[in-house]
Amino acid sequence: MKTVINNVTVLTMDKAENVYKNGYVVIEGTKIAGVGEGTGPQDADQTVDGQGGILMPGMINTHSHISMIPFRSLGEDGKDRLRKLFFPLEREALTPELVRQGARYAVCELLLGGVTSVMDMYYFEDAVAQACDEMGIDAWTGQTIIEMETCDSRNAADALKLNEELIKKWKGHGRIHPVVAPHATNTNGPETLQAAYELAQKYDVPYTLHVCEMDYEMTMFREKYDKTPVEFLYGIGVLGPRTVAAHCIHLSDHDIELFAESGAKIAHCAIANAKSGKGVCRAYDAKQAGVTVGVGTDGPSSGNTIDLLTQLRIIPPLQKTRRHDNTIFSAKETAFMGTIEGAKVLGAQNEIGSIETGKRANLTLIETQSVNMFPIYEPYAAVVYMANPSNVDSVWVDGKQLVKGHKLLFADHLEERAKLEALMPEFRRMSANYRDF
Ligand SMILES: [Zn+2]
User: Fold this and answer.
1) Checking CA distances to 398, which of 3, 143, 188, 409 falls within 20 to 30 Å?
2) What is the mean pLDDT of residues 3-23?
3) For the domain 2-57+358-405, what is the CATH code?
4) pTM
5) How far is the CA of 245 from the centre of ligand 1 (A)?
């Protein structure tokens, strides 16, 4: 099957930063078979008229807990939501069915928002992997390893076993990529963090955790180890090229040096961090130091949306405000963060993240007919500052079109919602116990 998409502005995000103002892209099977200026070859099985839209690589969400859809808008503005609401409610109310259906619903939102790849960490993660496989999205999935009893594990050792089973089951799948996911620096001791790292090394998969997100985490590490959490991770040997650290709100200059030296990556979750009043990650400083920084949303309960366009819009303003300098952090580099830099965070830059011949055909077409998309002098700025998820017209993953005309082709989000709602009465009843947490 050969498809040609014509009449589009192509933002390739390739190394030469090529932009084709009136361009085309050819898809053959699961791969990109050509890209350039003008009209594509005439011998295609299918020709798509992009109507002057912007065609870009599918966006990459480098940190989420997509199955937390049932928690969205619950306990907003409450103090210490994680420990007082989410942890106990997750332990009490989660089932594999709820996690799986929550993930299916979340993937509807990801795809409709132009996101083609997501890195996820949660409980019953095999159910998340199944849901992502069924829905056709590209997913990096890791079982939460945490030193406490949870809905699916008595302790961290049990969770490590579950994570290893997940890896054995999914390693080698084309779209589902298992990862190792120790929850955070402050919820696991050094032995668990190291055991998880050994597991990631054994199977050569990414290693992801939350890092320097909490004020109390910073105090705890200073008091207990006289180190920052990043210095601590470096010291126990788990900061390396396969490490994806989410949040990194509180980074010292030395921490940034350690990231650059070790090759560890950052998943920047701007909205979740700002909304919870925790602070703004020094993404600009880290990037200047040579650290790879991608974009994450965190769970749908933290930032409330899991698409990337909503995130991209706020990232430069926060960095410009931090430095009182509007000339830094361009729309262009922000768009790169949402695509090829995200691919580098996942270690998948040779497969996805840019529009180049031979790469997997993960593509997002943003239409420019809507009222908010005119005029466009600078397509990167249009993507970052003007577009919203409702402008996403079409999405392809592995060459298969999953969204067309703003609609999912192989699922119906209202049907998925009805199925999720049918599983939620018990969750709703239990959540009422935490109304005044
Ligand atoms: Zn998170």
Assistant:
1) 143
2) 98
3) 2.30.40.10
4) 0.98
5) 10
Using one digit for the tens of pLDDT, what is the confidence trace for 318-366? 999 999 999 999 999 999 999 999 999 999 999 999 999 999 999 999 9
112 Cα–ligand 1 center, Å: 22
Per the structure block, which two tokens stand in for 378?
């600078």
CA distances 160 to 63, 68, 179, 205, Å, are 20, 21, 11, 14
44 Cα: distance to centroid of ligand 1 (angstroms): 43
Short-list 231, 253, 346, 357, CA closest to 293:
346
Kindly give the distance from the C-alpha atom of residue 177 to the centroid of ligand 1, in angstroms, as a whole number: 18
- Helices 413-423/96-112 angle, 10° precision: 160
CATH no. for 59-346: 3.20.20.140
Distance from Cα 296 to the centre of ligand 1, integer Å: 9
**Cα 184 to ligand 1 centre (Å):** 9
Token pair, residue 251, equals 């980074």
Average pLDDT of 370-376? 98
Measuring CA to CA, which residue among 306, 353, 286, 363 is closest to residue 63? 306
Instruction: Please compute Rg for the chain using Cα positions.
Output: 21
Q: Residue 437: pLDDT above 80?
A: no
Segments of the chain assigned to CATH 2.30.40.10: 2-57+358-405
Identity (one letter) of the amino acid at 383?
Answer: V
> Mind listing the pLDDT tens digit for each residue in 110-160?
999 999 999 999 999 999 999 999 999 999 999 999 999 999 999 999 999
